[in-house]
Automatic annotation (TrEMBL):
CDD domains: HP_PGM_like. It comes from the Eukaryota. It comes from Octopus sinensis. This is Protein UBASH3A homolog isoform X5. InterPro entries: Cyclic_Pdiesterase (IPR009097), His_Pase_superF_clade-1 (IPR013078), His_PPase_superfam (IPR029033), Phosphatase_SH3-domain (IPR051710), SH3-like_dom_sf (IPR036028). Gene3D superfamilies: Cyclic phosphodiesterase (3.90.1140.10), Phosphoglycerate mutase-like (3.40.50.1240), SH3 Domains (2.30.30.40).
Amino acid sequence: MWISSGSYEKAIAVTGDRGPQIAADWLLSHCNDSTLDQKTCQEYILYLCPVGPLQKQLADYFEKTRVQCGWNGAHAYFPHITLCHFFKAEDSKIPYLTKALNKLQEKLLKAPGHLELEFFSQVNFIGLLVQKCYYDFLEEIVADYAEEIRKVGVTMDPRRQQLHMTLAYQYSKDQHERLLRYAKEIDLNSDVKWEFRLYSRDPRAGECEVREVTRSYSSNNEDELELVEGDHVLADPIELSNSKNGWCKGISTLTGSVGMFRIGCTMRTSETSTWTLHKSLMVVPATNMYNGLSEGDYDNLWVGEQDDIYNKLLKNKKSEENQNIPREPRCLFVMRHGERCDFALGRDWVDSCFNSAGRYSRINLNLPKNMLKRKNYLDFIKDCPLTEVGKLQARLTGEGLRDASVNLSHLYVSPALRCIQTAHEIVTALGLNLKICIEPSLFEWLGWYQLGLPIWFTPDELIDHGYAVDRNYISYMVPTQLYLDETVEHFYSRCADFTRYILKKHEHEDVCNILIVGHAGSLDVCTRQLLGKAPRSVGGFHEILPYVPCCSMCCCVEDPLTKKWRMKEPPVPPITHVANKKYNWKTLI
């Protein structure tokens, strides 16, 4: 398949410049796209988006009103504040758009306090208005961005009207009071952080209704679209409403193919579900910029009550003038946890080990002799402990690190109990007085948790059980920022962002050996982009997992001069042992 330079640039733009592999995958899926070689520009827009408990309330409001009041214009988007009008840019200008946004980072760290919103409603509109001081701040930021991209020939018009967040519009008058009542249930004092985001969309999306494929369909005729569950179809809203046979002409966003599709296999969804996120920067109030520990109870981070989580980005920030080269190269170790109870004894192990009152019985010597106490024993189903063999695996790994004279300086661990127990065994074997920093952003791919996240032990509960957890550590993410609709691509970004963050945080230390204890995928997602490689596809990600057994470890080392990272052989050999199946003495009868 011959690819023109213009087509490749288009693929880079449409996929958000996330790497050549993702762009190549997009090109392969669009081999029958008749517009592939057409010179069309993506449309771009700047949004200010809420993150955290307030965002959850807003999303719940959108879903509730869609179900109970019917579709209105606000449902075409996720909760946001629009900062400019859509603007077009040639595909070759994508790197300049993101670089221009990066230049705003320093200003975004000096926001004027917390953004306050107030309700506003009139006939056929319900929304939240932005306070004046923040309006001026955002207006200046957007103007700076417009001026920066103008240098490369891209024109953008800032929004000239009052900045606001739309909750509902384009609805029938009889729904106004009901929509307003639901809106008033939103607690505007809920915790929230804001992200400054650059999105792009297919220019055709603004003129079409977006339909999500809910049921697959195999085409029987050449003019029919092959429908794949999860794909999105762009269709003319007038043609949809005038359809008499349940069929309509549409465009598949997955393949770019045009054809007739069965309307009954799709449902209307938000336009923004087809958009591409290019860059996201945090907006941090200037009052949050200080050194030292955060005030308040660290356990609040685990229930979404921490008022100031983003100050962690600036905690103990080192002077940029300190450019001393470390005495030895920095090393990053990433390892998987040890053997877990459910994988060793089956997913019904909780039913076999606990009675209805929650009393634990050790039915297998590989199970813990004493089970940790927790509020609900059923929470072990999603957050299981290590087996005794798993603890041994971790202890042997720790002894291997000790024998290799590895001196760990920092320990970051997924909140999963099996990871915390693995880290505990390693530190014990090393004989180090090193505390465990629990980091939610290191938890495994959320695509496996569609029914909800596990209920993890809090730091205080773990300390009570004898684990050396750092109560004062301010995590990079909090559990409320983990979204169950996460794609594999977003999973790579989540873990790569944290890896870059800790490496930046510890870049001026003379001795820097960081250990991350996570999951099977952690060895790849925490290091792949650090090594200059693109994230794997969904299939590629799943292919590598069987090759990462319990307590596997990888090691990345930095060249002190070039600052480039490479992977090298780990300092500890692997652990290999045969499986020991469950024994039933009755087979001898």
